[in-house]
Amino acid sequence: MWAKFFGELRGRVRFVSLQHGETQDDINFIRWKYGVEIYQDQNIDTWSDLDTVAAQVATLDYVVSISTTVIHVAGALGVPSWVLLKNEPYLHWKAGNQVCPWYPTVQPVRQKNPDEWDSTIKVDPSVKTIFQRV
Prior knowledge:
The structure is a single chain. This protein is of the alpha/beta class. It has one domain: Rossmann fold. Helices cover 39% and strands 13% of the residues. α3 packs across α4.
């Protein structure tokens, strides 16, 4: 999945990590494997400074995340986003790929098969639309 994602967007967008915790090894791996630079502001305390996290999210053109606080912040701020969801239902995300009424700018992207993302990225037309917009 990430090879396709980074391959389509490398050199056309800037990636920003909003991930909590020790992420430098992951960022280094992505740089090595996909040739992509990912910016992470080391001055933001992503665990306890939600106001600054929200300010950072508000500056972004697009957010791609799993169902975490970040995607709820992006939705609340109206930032266009994808939320990557497993194929089983979530309480606060509608069935299928229907947009949640609370976050109309967040597009659910649900797995087609359990624990497998490649077919979702290849098949789901809503996922491919970002490639044309960027």
